[in-house]
Amino acid sequence: MEAQAQGLLETEPLQGRDEDTVASADFSSMLSEEEREELKAELVQLEDEITTLRQVLSAKERHLVEIKQKLGMNLMNELKQNFSRSWHDMQTSTAYKKTHETLSHAGQKATAAFSNVGTAISKKFGDMRSHSISYSIRHSISMPAMRRK
């Protein structure tokens, strides 16, 4: 009996099978005629209120569209505004500022490194060229001398 009592006191939400069981149960035999009539009246009243709320919501949505049209607002303008606002918010965020600063610093270091590599390569090519020219001159001078012998 205690297991049944505890089942009635469970606070866990209903599962799908529990909802099906409750939906298929016939509680109408447990209600008095007066309670049934009160519930029916409440049901009708709730349905009327829901219908009224839907109508009011629909009218407000139409009014919203009219106001937006008068102001020249359309979906594309709203998207642009939202994007601009989001972009601005992102740029002013601390994370963006730190990332921008870090990448900027890294870019400067990379530029300096590439410049140093470029200078070293240019110097090496220059050395090779001057070496090649001096070798060529020495070679052209020594060739006739070798021919004489």
Could you give a short account of the major beta sheet? none
Q: Percent of residues in helical segments? A: over 70%
Cα(first) to Cα(last) distance is: 128 Å
How is the quaternary structure best described? single chain
What is the succession of H and E elements? HHHHH
Shape call: elongated
Give the uncertain stretches in residue-range form: none
Count of DSSP helices?
A: 5
Number of strands: 0
Q: How would you classify the helix and strand content by structural class?
A: mainly alpha
The gyration radius over C-alpha positions equals 43 Å
Approximate strand percentage: under 5%
- Mean pLDDT comes to 79
Describe it for me?
Helices cover 85% and strands 0% of the residues. With 149 residues, it is mainly alpha-helical. Among the domains are: 30-74; 116-149. The longest helix is centred in the C-terminal third of the chain and has 55 residues, at 94-148. The mean pLDDT is 79.
